[in-house]
Amino acid sequence: MNGIHHERGFTLPELLVSLAVVSILTVGTGNMLARFIQENRMAAEVNTFVTTLHVARSEAVKRNGRVVLCPSRDGKTCGNSMDWNTGWLLFRSNDRERNRDEALLQSGNPLQPAITMHSSNQRKRIVYQQDGSAGGTNSSFTFCDRRGLAKPRVICLSNTGRPRLSLTRCNGKPVDCA
Fold it and tell me: Are 81 and 70 contacting, i.e. CB atoms less than 8 angstroms apart?
């Protein structure tokens, strides 16, 4: 050998610049990933509730009777609150309350952490009639992300019983999650 020996590696400034670039990319990608995950969680919660509304409507028509959707903390009885975040019940009923002899058609789990849902007109019950109408007035259910990572979404429920998804309030105005 001729005695020439080449060292391979990084100098300290090269290593520091490389680490700075990697950390900047990691922070940017991490925030995008958190936003992506929360958007998917929000979409899953909204889709679950819309599906429940569709099931309620179709069950009322199929069973030719009233079907009630109400918030529930314990998964067995309707609560006397408007807190839909803790879960809900879907059942057939003549008196808008779940009695022991009335079969539970479906129950919803509490919403995922950081996601909230509230009703525009403080609805404690959605009662579907045998013709598929949702009885009462038009309503909306607003889903918000407490951390602000996911866009808010609104389910507009007409008194005909048809749910519609929106990124604005039902009247077209921006959603306020404050």
Answer: no
